[in-house]
Write a structure and sequence with these properties.
alpha+beta; eight-stranded mixed β-sheet; five-stranded mixed β-sheet
Length: 582
């Protein structure tokens, strides 16, 4: 971005990182200018506070910094689809297995859309660690994951701030079991039980959320519109589901994973009599189609492959599929160790007879993707045909969504000795009504007024006190796998410099952010796996970040010390204390 001091405000700067010429001096040394993108406070106050603190502290050390507030969809479009940003503050949708870090940071994914390496980061050492961890098991894999985290913590292509807690509220006068899973997890709806005798009123579950996207878009492949995938997760099933610390059979009746040869092979046997919501049979051909389609939504008909921007990380492990019979499919998984192979099986399965007609190039305003997207990527899929426990009934854009029980789902059948018997009986309601509200406060008040049964999203910490004001409401919390982070566009100078990124992260007091912005409802982040058993002792939080400790005390930045550290790292200043862009 080229501009003048008058044209780049501290709260309204836009465009890409660049030089700010000395307006008064008529072409003197150029000041470094940077824009930080995030969402408004009424969308996520934590992200806004992190961005504001970073902007203020960058300005304090001589960088001309501003921030741009965008809707969630626009932020994801700029970051995940167009790579149009300098720095952003967001949440990353992590997974229970460390292999989610491979598509997040491996150089082979640089240039793709979606959560696949949106930082355009490339580092040979990190690539080697990412490959090593997916090929090993047991203690060897734990060591490899530890080495990977050390390399990422040194380089800081992504600055992990904190892992928030999921916070939700619900009534228990009609349904119980709200504490089994957070309501952002589709399995939570299968864990509910009715209280007392079932009545017409209890047969309808009512929830509310501030995210209106599912009322107009239910495309499970959309990185712009899907983050948690709660409702698409109720509409589309996968071969396996992750719960109780492992991947368990779901659409699959069973599987065998053979790692003894040069190539890991997963042979999957489907349950019998599976059907799509439109009555068509679900077969092994649909499974094979799904993995081929996610790796190239043109199905080989384009000049180059166009991978799906969401679910790509898991699907990319599948090198070849072979349909053995209507219920049996074989997946060739390269050198993947068993834990990584099992993660592949958590990919939602798509109906071939619906999606095979979406391979053509699409017209998509605002997208600057290369290669150009297919219809599959940009379609709203507003009347989805899935295979999940619930099926689509109707929606009003921006207002409501209604899903109803799919009686042909295997979970609703009478059965015994089933691998998924933990959820025997399926959902305890016939209809799920989702109501859209403008704020967390409005969501809590709807639950308190008995107009809905629960919040279907995590509420912000500043709404917890509202829950405490109502005796009939229950508050639930659970640590989230997602994490707040600062993302750097490493194609931009000097953001491609690891020393510069490390110093930027040292301007933030993570302890203060957790205590004030998160009101204590979170854990300090050092790596994407902080708070899990995967973190080595030297990367655990012990009062400060061991790799990028805050430059200051008690939340107050030591500006002079910070400037000294930037100078020592080779970043110069002019006579007016402004950092010079180079």
């Amino acid at each position: 971005m080229l501009g003048t001091a008058a044209g780049v405000g501290a709260t309204a700067a836009s465009g890409c990182l660049g030089l700010l010429t000395d307006f008064l001096g008529g072409g003197g040394p150029a000041q470094l200018s940077v824009t930080i993108k995030t969402v408004p406070a009424d969308t996520d106050p934590v992200m806004t506070q992190i961005a504001r603190q970073l902007v203020n502290r960058l300005n304090a050390i001589g960088v001309n910094a501003g921030f741009e507030l965008l809707s969630r969809a626009q932020l994801r479009q700029d970051v995940l689809m167009n790579n149009d940003y300098d720095i952003y503050v967001g949440e990353f949708p992590a997974h229970g297995d460390p292999d989610f870090m491979r598509p997040m940071l491996h150089s082979v994914f640089a240039g793709e859309s979606g959560w696949q390496n949106p930082f355009e980061y490339s580092d040979l050492t990190v690539d080697e660690h990412l490959t090593a961890q997916r090929e090993q098991s047991g203690s060897d894999r734990k060591l490899a994951v530890g080495d990977l985290q050390r390399a990422v913590a040194r380089e800081q292509p992504i600055g992990v701030i904190a892992h928030p807690e999921e916070i939700w509220t619900a009534r228990d006068d009609r349904f119980t079991g709200w504490d089994e899973f957070p309501l952002v997890n589709p399995l939570s709806y299968l864990s509910l039980q009715t209280r007392g005798q079932t009545t017409d009123r209890r047969e309808r579950l009512r929830v509310t959320t501030t995210n209106g996207t599912p009322t107009g878009n239910l495309n499970p492949l959309s990185a712009m519109h899907r983050y948690r995938g709660t409702f698409t997760g109720l509409l589309y099933d996968s071969l396996g589901e992750y719960y109780d610390g492992t991947v368990n059979p779901w659409l699959a009746r069973s599987w065998e994973i053979d790692t003894s040869g040069e190539t890991t092979t997963a042979t999957v046997t489907l349950r019998s009599s599976l059907r799509w919501h439109d009555g068509q049979p679900l077969t092994a051909s649909d499974v094979a189609f799904t993995y081929r389609f996610l790796n190239d939504t043109t199905l080989g008909n384009g000049e180059t492959a166009v991978p799906a921007p969401r679910l790509r990380g898991r699907a990319s492990i599948v090198e070849e599929t072979t349909v053995r019979d209507a219920r049996t499919v074989e997946l060739q998984l390269g050198s993947a160790a068993r834990p990584v192979a099992e993660r592949v099986l958590t990919t939602p399965i798509l109906p071939a007879h619906i999606w095979e007609s979406t391979t053509a190039q699409a017209s998509a305003a605002g997208l600057d993707m290369t290669p150009y997207p297919t219809e599959a990527i940009v379609a709203d899929n507003s009347t989805p045909v899935g295979n999940g426990v619930l099926q689509f009934e109707g929606s009003t854009d921006g207002e409501s969504l209604v899903l109803t029980r799919f009686d042909e789902h295997f979970m609703h059948r009478n059965r015994s000795s089933d691998p998924a018997e933990r959820f025997d009986g399926g959902i305890p309601f016939n209809r799920l009504s989702v109501r859209i509200v403008p704020s967390d406060a409005a969501a809590v008040e709807l639950v308190a007024a008995d107009e809905v049964d629960a919040t279907a999203m995590s509420i912000a910490p500043n709404s917890v006190s509202r829950v405490g004001n109502h005796d009939e409401l229950n508050l639930f919390t659970e640590k989230s796998r997602t994490f707040y982070h600062v993302g750097f566009n490493t194609r931009q100078v000097p953001l491609g410099n690891g020393h510069f990124r490390r110093l930027i992260m040292r301007l933030l007091d993570k302890g203060q952010i957790v205590e004030e912005a998160l009101d204590g409802y979170g854990t300090h982040g050092v790596t994407p796996l902080s708070g899990t058993d995967w973190v080595p002792a030297d990367l655990t939080w012990d009062g400060e970040d061991p790799q990028v400790p805050f430059i200051g005390e008690d939340g107050e930045l030591d500006e002079q010390r910070a400037k000294e550290l930037f100078r020592e790292a080779g970043f110069g200043y002019d006579d007016n204390g402004r950092m010079i862009a180079r």
